# Entry
Amino acid sequence: MTAKILAQAEQAPAPLSRLRVTEPRIQRVAGRLEASRDVIRKQAGAVLALVSRIDDNFAQALDLILETEGHVIVVGMGKSGLIGQKIAATLASTGTPSFAVHPGEAYHGDLGMIRPCDLVLMLSYSGETEEVIRLLPSLRRNSVKIVAMVGQPNSRLSRDADVTLDVSVDSEVCPNNLAPTNSTLAAMAMGDALAVALMRERNFGPRDFACFHPGGSLGRRLLTRVGDAMHVNNLPFVNATDTVQETLFAVSRGRLGLALVLNKGRLVGLVTDGDLRRGVQDGTAVFEHSTESIMTPEPQTVNADTLLEDAQATMHKWRISALVVVDRDGRVEGVLDIYCR
# Structure
């Protein structure tokens, strides 16, 4: 962008007074961009500094969570609370039952949500946040395990926790070194590291993920069965002895680009638009021939309980646009085409 502004300034036949105004603007733009790049560099550095802290404490926290029979309950105040909500949501969607509790609400009754079988993940950069600290006696009375995520390892929260995860940063990228920026990013990165490590320990795969995301594209792809997407109404059935012309009419009525050829109620073949076009190439006399002469015998079939993803893979493998859905006795139940979702 800076280069573009400079090029425009050099090409434009502007008076000297105008150039004097343009040059400072170019410098301001360049300065702003470089300052913003420096923010990203410093934040990347804050996250990279966490690598050395994936240590024995991290392993202990992982073991405590894996041993937890109940929920992982995330508690934090202010910006830490917002990061805690994200961590809880990530844990819950990746196989670790979890939810966030506001410390103020917890102190006024919501502690009833926390049971001895649960584990509490407490976020406080200072480790001295009043709303968080005052929950410690109640949690200890109920023998609740505590994992602390703090920036001050010698803080009250760190001393009272079973395990402490160090998410300290050298400074914030805020010009005043006040607004939580690097510190919140570090806490979120540590939470993601925990979630991913737990996924690996639990062998949490794509199909498990889809179970918690049925409304997303992955959930629809991995959980939808053929029976949920197939066409079942007004299927175009013909007999092998019907003429090609009669089959052409059936294909048109069915609007699926095909006709299902039956013999005594059993599927014996399939006629597609392509079969009809190839038949006509031999002349119009083909319309008087039997459907058996142009059909594809023993077409590819699939069961209604097959995953849609697997059925689509079969269509891709055989380069076909439709599959006939049959039951265990070979009777037609529907048709799945490439447009089914």
